[in-house]
Amino acid sequence: MAKKPVKITRTAPAKREPEGRAQKAEAPVSASNVAVRPAVIVVGADKGGVGKTTIARAILDFLSLNDIHARAFDTETPRGTLHRFHPDETMIVDLTEPADQMKIIDTYVADANYFMVKSHVNDTTFFEWDPQTHEKYFEDVVTSGEITIPKLSELAYEQVELSGTPFSTFIANQDAQGQPAEHSFVLRGYVRTWLARVADEFERVGLLEIVGDKRR
Predict the structure, then answer these.
(1) Residues 91-102 pLDDT 10s
(2) Which of 85, 68, 58 shows the shortest CA–CA distance to 148?
(3) Which residues share a beta bridge with 70?
(4) What is the mean pLDDT of the segment spanning 68-76?
């Protein structure tokens, strides 16, 4: 059984009080005699290789480091790349199967927040759409802002991939079973800095507040 992400220490802005993948991460909350709605985060794109799984992994680490328990649906069936790194939190689903569709769609909420995410993890290049094309593509979507995922060193990214662990567990120099590992100190530093910058982006757009509002 893979160990859950290990908390890391970093200098960061004051932690906001909470009031969580497509890949989807859902952050349920329990409270006696209170009806709550799950907060659902959907990470998606209309093409492969743009960093959807990486962003979903970063979100799960971010939520875990902020003491928000989440579960995830991995739609990359049957492979389940997200499931490889977060097996305890992730369920692989097949969107062509009605039963799996229900598991996800039944958790949707109407008052969604949409963010445009630019992932530079793999040196993706972006183009600017002309206003008419952009308007047509997003005619039914009102975006809440833009999130930029910075580039991570190719060697560091490759070593995290080979370790098969959450980013925070790699930083803590542990393997998937929670045992001491021998990851490079330098590469762990690269990953630590990258994950901190990603967390800053999530905090900038108020992700914790959004999750908190949805959980009330």
Answers:
(1) 888 878 877 776
(2) 58
(3) none
(4) 86
Q: How many domains does the chain have?
A: 1
Residue 9 falls inside a structural domain = no
| This prediction's pTM | 0.62
Residue 17 exposure: Cα atoms within 13 Å on the Cβ side? 1
3 found inside a domain: no
The gap from C-alpha 195 to its chain's centroid, in whole angstroms, comes to 11
Greater confidence (7 vs 69) lies with 69
The answer to whether the CB of 18 falls within 8 A of the CB of 211 is: yes
Residue 14 lies in a domain: no
Q: What domain range includes position 95?
A: 23-215
In a domain, 17, yes or no: no
